[in-house]
Amino acid sequence: MTISTAAVGKTYAPSTYAVGREKIREYAAAVGEANPLHHDLEHARDAGYRDLVAPPMFCVVYCGAALGPVMFDPEVGIDFRRLLHSAQEFRWGPLVVSGDEIETTFAVKEISERAGNGFYTFESVSKNQDGDTVCVGTWSNVVRGG
Length: 146
Prior knowledge:
Shape: elongated
Order of helices and strands: EHHHEEEE
Helix content: 10-25%
Oligomer: single chain
């Protein structure tokens, strides 16, 4: 297996995601999140938020569109037949609420080869419309050798 490190340091064009109330509710229901901050607008407003609050892992939704160009970049060279998700790590900032517009940018942080396997690490930075960093993610994958 030949691994190219040419894409290390490459940054991709940002993607913007408009956070919707129903998407928050749908995501919360899908993952079994029962906290009324994610479902009940009146409850969220009574708690001091301007709208429904997205669960923290909703970041996978607003990062999704920005991740595609990274994963499918021929310069990165991922062989999807052998791809394994290995880890994720997130650091959150201010909570995301319905009505936010989240801009996410991805960068290739590391590509390496060990024991015939390819290791790929990407970093996402997501900011809201006020410029606040709402989430920084580290996305790690392994491509098994042949």
